[in-house]
Amino acid sequence: MTTVDPAPPPPMRLRELVFGAACAAAVRAAARLGVADALEETPMSVDDLAAAVKAQPRTLRRLLRALSCQGVFMEHPDGTFAHTEMSRLLREDDPNSLRYIALWCTEPWTWNVWPKLDEAVRSGRNVFEDVYDREFFEYLNTEAPESAYVFNRAMTTSSEQSARDVANLLDLRNVSSVADIGGGQGQVVASLLEKHPKMHGTLLDLPGVVENADPRLRSGGSLADRVRIVAGDCREDIPVQADVYIIKNILEWDDESTRRALANVRKAARPGARVVVIENLVDDTPSMKFTTSMDLLLLLNVGGAKHTQKSMVERLTDAGLVIGEIRPVNAYLHAFECTIPS
Ligand SMILES: C[S@@+](CC[C@H](N)C(=O)[O-])C[C@H]1O[C@@H](n2cnc3c(N)ncnc32)[C@H](O)[C@@H]1O
């Protein structure tokens, strides 16, 4: 039977750390095989599971053994496997599913850029463009449709989970229009419009992303008559007038892109308009290992970073925004309430 060692001694811990790729690959393999979806609420034998996911029992057992050591699935003394809290999160139908986040963090391109982390640390810039010869989002939307799909599903999952928190946080009384810049497939806009039935909204994101916008926002959808969908690049132009602009999990790319996007918001917005920037802060998170790892991945793919409160404030101030309250949205996200000066 496989058990989890909660606190191994340092030499063992370091050996385990350098095999982090094996852990990530095992989680990815289980997600792609659909093992968590196939495993029912009662423990199952490896043979039954292997038949359900069309794999070899002997190799599936080895995969499950490795994952059980990490607390993803658990093995019973009779050799059957059962769900744990973590393995349930790999199910597609779990209300808090992390299936697409797990796939996103382990997409094929990630395995090509991690070995160049030392180069990125030395140069201070992304390595993605050296490896793939084009910008990350351009690659994603033109060359890697499967990865783009996984990315958009991952963003949608995390947006669905945070959109309600954003809608609860923002005081939108007397606000008639809201715009989400880089709003992905539009979960935040949709939540806000559902909560405020008189409000209008705009979703701006790259063309390949908005063409798969949330069905509520698309033609025939329940919110379609109150929404405008703009396909564009916010570093080039933000042709949108709104009372409130939301910029959530966007300003974590390179500084020049942040500077251009914020300058375009300033150009588009009238004096007094609100700009709400929402980010995970690397210096204020209950999930330091995840956030610092994501920070490194952002360095590799877009030359970006997860911000500290100070580095975010500096960029917003440089853009000429007047910063008001900085508040937690939930355990992971912070909102910076800003206004466009007169
Ligand atoms: C990390 S996701 C965040 C999505 C959404 N705001 C959320 O919080 O779920 C980054 C988003 O920025 C979009 N994006 C990237 N480059 C962009 C650009 N130049 N102009 C507009 N959107 C862009 C991506 O397509 C993606 O939807």
UniProtKB/TrEMBL annotation:
<dbReference type="Pfam" id="PF00891">
    <property type="entry name" value="Methyltransf_2"/>
</dbReference>
<feature type="domain" description="O-methyltransferase C-terminal">
    <location>
        <begin position="114"/>
        <end position="320"/>
    </location>
</feature>
<protein>
    <submittedName>
        <fullName>O-methyltransferase</fullName>
    </submittedName>
</protein>
<dbReference type="InterPro" id="IPR012967">
    <property type="entry name" value="COMT_dimerisation"/>
</dbReference>
<keyword id="KW-0949">S-adenosyl-L-methionine</keyword>
<keyword id="KW-0808">Transferase</keyword>
<feature type="domain" description="O-methyltransferase dimerisation">
    <location>
        <begin position="16"/>
        <end position="90"/>
    </location>
</feature>
<dbReference type="InterPro" id="IPR036390">
    <property type="entry name" value="WH_DNA-bd_sf"/>
</dbReference>
<dbReference type="GO" id="GO:0008171">
    <property type="term" value="F:O-methyltransferase activity"/>
</dbReference>
<keyword id="KW-0489">Methyltransferase</keyword>
<dbReference type="Pfam" id="PF08100">
    <property type="entry name" value="Dimerisation"/>
</dbReference>
<dbReference type="InterPro" id="IPR029063">
    <property type="entry name" value="SAM-dependent_MTases_sf"/>
</dbReference>
<dbReference type="InterPro" id="IPR016461">
    <property type="entry name" value="COMT-like"/>
</dbReference>
<dbReference type="GO" id="GO:0032259">
    <property type="term" value="P:methylation"/>
</dbReference>
<dbReference type="InterPro" id="IPR001077">
    <property type="entry name" value="COMT_C"/>
</dbReference>
<dbReference type="GO" id="GO:0046983">
    <property type="term" value="F:protein dimerization activity"/>
</dbReference>
<dbReference type="InterPro" id="IPR036388">
    <property type="entry name" value="WH-like_DNA-bd_sf"/>
</dbReference>
